[in-house]
Design a protein that fits this description.
By secondary structure, the protein is mostly helical. It has helices spanning 4-13, 15-27, 29-34, 42-48, 57-73, 80-92, 94-110, 114-128, 134-146, 152-159, 171-179, 208-217, and strands spanning 183-193, 197-206. Strand 1 (183-193) and strand 2 (197-206) form a beta hairpin.
């Protein structure tokens, strides 16, 4: 981790390297690594190693997740003033780099779906841009780690008021989003039948945290 954090920081904030990461994702990571292209990117050379190829599934997945995160982070610009401010903070106090960038690397390492690394990139961009604070980033990232990616569309449908109660969606998906703290619910109706037992329909809506999650993840 001691070497990975600085390599990650350099790759994340150097515009020439972030452009290379974009090319890498577009052309395909595996084939490019086999040819030795892009190994000059710090985070790539560190994960793969000089003269090696990405044969290890674990390392290859971390690299793919990292490239996805970096590309998403750089999709929209942040003022140079805020970037410089953030870099100055983590370079002057290594404990912040270890805590913050180290946390991101650990999260990326646990991801299987690239969508989660994309969401993480958007949330971290909002943090560096000072739209959200560190505690909020941690909360959003923890939610993302526990989120079923297949539930995202339902969350967005509720956010856009296209779904308003559990009769319009799979109840188990709504329950999962409620458990994550993204939705509020209230009883709409209850029926009791000798054949099916009791059934409860609930109104559902995104709460303040759910709205923030949607706003940032759709940005």
């Amino acid at each position: 981790m001691d070497k990975l954090v600085p390599a990650f920081e350099t790759t994340l904030f150097d515009p020439t390297l972030s452009d290379a990461c974009s090319d890498m994702a577009e052309l395909g990571i595996d084939s490019l690594l086999d040819d030795g292209v892009f190994k000059s990117i710090p985070v790539v050379s560190l994960l793969i190693g000089v003269g090696k190829t990405a044969q290890n599934i674990h390392d290859r997945n971390l690299l793919k997740q990292t490239i996805k995160f970096i590309n998403t982070f750089n999709e929209k610009s942040i003022s140079q003033e805020k970037i410089n401010k953030y870099r100055k903070k983590i370079q002057s106090k290594p404990k912040y780099a270890e805590e913050e960038l180290g946390r991101v690397i650990i999260l990326l390492n646990s991801n299987v779906e690239l969508k989660k690394s994309e969401l993480l990139g958007k949330f971290y961009r909002a943090y560096v841009d000072e739209t959200i604070d560190w505690d909020t980033f941690c909360e959003l990232s923890d939610i993302t780690s526990r989120l079923f990616v297949s539930d995202l569309q339902l969350l967005y449908n509720i956010y856009h008021l296209q779904v308003s109660d559990t009769s319009q969606c799979p109840v188990y998906k709504a329950d999962r989003l409620i458990a994550l703290g993204l939705l509020d619910s209230a009883t709409k109706s209850m029926t009791i039948s000798s054949s099916t037992g009791s059934q409860t329909q609930r109104y559902i809506q995104t709460n303040a945290l759910g709205k923030l999650y949607c706003q940032l993840s759709l940005s």
